[in-house]
Amino acid sequence: MRKICVVSGSRADYWLLKPIILKLNQSKKISLKVVLTGAHLITDECQIWDDLNASGITDIERIDCVIGSDKAVAVTKSLGIGMIGFADLLHILSPDLVVVLGDRYEILAAVTACLLFGIPVGHIHGGEVTIGAFDDAIRHSVTKMSHLHFVSTEKYRERVIQLGENPDNIFNFGSLGVENIKNTVLVSKEALEKKLQMKFQKINILITFHPVTLGTVPSVTALNELLHSVSKIPDACLIFTSPNVDPEGKLLRGRIIDFVEKNQRRYFFESLGATNYFSMLKQVDCVLGNSSSGIIEAPSLGVGSINIGERQDGREMSDSVISCAPVSDEIDDALKRVLSNDFRSSICIADNVHEYDQTSAKITEILERFPLKKITQKKFFDLDRITK
Predict the structure, then answer these.
(1) Which residues pair with 32 in a beta bridge?
(2) Strand, helix or coil at 76?
(3) Which domain holds residue 140?
(4) Per-residue pLDDT, 348
(5) Claim to verify: residue 111 and residue 255 sit in the same structural domain
(6) Same domain, 107 and 191
(7) CA separation for the pair 176, 360 (Å, rounded)
(8) Which residues does 84 contact at the CB level (< 8 Å), separation at least 6?
(9) For the chain, how long is the longest CA-to-CA vector?
């Protein structure tokens, strides 16, 4: 029986990984261990732990690595503490394969430890580019230390090959987030209002703004420009979700909460959970900010998005996504466009470049069956070996 560890470091990657976790748990070929680390242990550990238990998954480990600060020195120390924790865990468990998603620093800690232990890694969502975040370098580093690659578009597959990875080990099965939307029973508008104690208005905007860790404009300056723009729509319902636990994350969170408290049509949620988030996404008129959700998931619900600033620069985007600089005048223009009837009509037929069928089932099958013997002995795949 193949022993697989799935590592999750935040609410965002957990809800993406959940269908794979469930399928692996049901497999007679797999012995599954789920490892929670990172932001889980400071914000939403109980929610995720309870969700896993409700799904029949009780074999759970925790790696506590986050120091209670979002300063660069604390994040760097957290990375080191994470490596120590994963070293101890891998020494005890000795898994056959570790599965990770994305580009967070706690994932870098896990994968670096796997490299030194000679344990194969399956990496989901490699090959993407986010120029305005240090996540970009982490993502590509994780790719080089991984052995099975699950990408969400053909361009990202080509980029992983460009990094020297064997095309036979790279699989384009689309985005788990898009599949999750299609498989989630969404909550009605009325039920959301009751459950979340809120009230939708004529115009409703879902906002997530994360720190821009490699941006040319300070994150709080960009956020202030965003808040200035949305404050010009006084009758709108503004729904904010919490920023990432990154440098400046606490500063942004505090600024958002101050803004929300000044108007009863503004709401702040630490974490909505997948069902509530996707249901909210379906009800709003647009998504605003710099989260990948507005780029990857929103197009599949026919919802327009405004992508602000540099954080997501480099990602493939559907026609339903409008990008603009973190300047109030540009955000104003983007809001007018995304809320216009012409734009709304055009995105009803927009394609989502991340949408494929049976994403989690296909990934699970590879995790179950792909031969792992000698997989850690990687040869660099030169581009001139690609057959045209």
Answers:
(1) 4
(2) helix
(3) 2-174+356-376
(4) 66
(5) no
(6) no
(7) 6
(8) none
(9) 61
